[in-house]
Amino acid sequence: MKKIDLKRELKHLYAPSARVIEIVDVPEFQYAMIDGQIESGMEPGTSSSFQEAIEAMYGISYTLKFMSKQREQDPIDYTVMALEELWDVEDGAFDINRKDNWFWTLIVMQPEHIDQDMFTLACQQLLKKKGNPAIEKLRLERFHEGLSVQTMHIGPYSEEPATVARMQAYAQDNGYLMRGRHHEIYLGDPRRAQPEKLKTILRHPVETKPA
């Protein structure tokens, strides 16, 4: 059986150093995606729709892995990629300290052999098994982030603003402006890890500063 390990192949994008801030060029990949918004008065840890979306995202990712391994022709086993999130606000500046106006898109990268037919069938199977309404909102879509600044943040999510400020300063010092959506890639599970040991890749698209 053929095996794929995208985490190893894409180590420069999914295992950066916490000691280094760098500019990377992120190619186009395909992802399972789902969109939503943190409800007024809530935050990610207390939003039921957000938790349902996370469950649906993990569910579809592992269902696809199982289907890929079990198919009769060209079975492929692969490592399920990390949960990622794009954060934004409808208007105004993104403020990590205010959470109840956030729009989010949860994403998990999927190998190229996963096609729309497999994805649709996996969603149907998962919906019958789990009945989670978020499953019906899942989609398979390509996303090209392009030139970005990134680093590893180690510690609580509440301490991310200091790391983002360092990223912004690095980008400006090297002739770039940060743009686009705040991007987090979760390498630790907050339900199990101590907050000070959580590992989160922070990434922001950048563009060249005008002359």
Write the layout of secondary structure elements.
Elements: E1 2-4, H1 6-9, H2 11-14, E2 22-37, H3 48-70, E3 76-78, E4 83-89, E5 102-110, H4 116-130, E6 139-154, H5 160-173, E7 176-178, E8 182-186, E9 199-208
Question: What can be said about this structure in brief?
Answer:
The strands form 2 sheets. The chain has a 6-stranded antiparallel barrel.
Order of helices and strands: EHHEHEEEHEHEEE
Strand content is 25-35%
**Strand arrangement across the biggest beta sheet:** 2-5-4-8-9-6
Mean pLDDT: 91
* Helix content class: 25-40%
Instruction: Quickly count the domains.
Output: 1
Say what the CATH topology is: Multidrug-efflux Transporter 1 Regulator Bmrr, Chain A
Low-confidence stretches: none
Tell me the name of the CATH homologous superfamily.
Answer: Regulatory factor, effector binding domain
- What's the CATH class label? Alpha Beta
Radius of gyration: 18 Å
**Global structural class:** alpha+beta
Shape descriptor: globular
Q: Give the tally of β-strands.
A: 9
Q: Count the helices. How many?
A: 5
Distance between the termini: 53 Å
Summarize the structure in words.
Helices cover 28% and strands 34% of the residues. It has 211 residues and is an alpha+beta fold. The strands form 2 sheets. A 6-stranded antiparallel β-barrel has the order 2-5-4-8-9-6. Helix 3 (48-70) crosses helix 4 (116-130). The longest helix has 23 residues, at 48-70.
